[in-house]
Please model this.
Amino acid sequence: NVLTPERRLDVRVFLSKIADSTSPLEINVQFKDGEKLIAEQNRKILFPTDKPNDFTFEKLGDIELWDISQPRLYNVRVTLLNNGRLFDSFETRVGFREAKFTPDGFFLNGKPLKLRGLNRHQTYPFIGQAAPARLQKRDAWILRRELKCNIVRTSHYPQSPHFLDGCDEYGLLVLEEIPG
Model:
């Protein structure tokens, strides 16, 4: 529902390999705009299981949508506390958008968008796929800023998360091919 004021964020947290604990563990999930806290939820759990822990942040109508001209990203931080002490944490970025192919063309956030892009292989002369993070991100920048692409099709193997992060940051849509 990103095109309505009823925007929401669903966060699913999986816990694995946690030693038995007699004290309750606490999961804290924060939804942030940079360092500004937008929303937060906590949950105590006594016995970790293989079942996921779901958190929902609702009424997010004021957040900005991710767009190729303004790639707006937010942070989600999940921390696991044991007796109030940090046990583990994970942070990721999210963007809100609606992408749709219709008989009338491609639409991003309800607006038509002509796609212009290239295919990308992730190998480099002399180093193959052993490129550092800065080079992976630089590829996304070159595609978006120098070559003026708004979409990239990746080749048939898992892509570097650094390249995909760069695409998110620079406003480059990704059509990620199924590995195989």
Notes: Residues 133-146 form the longest helix (14 residues).
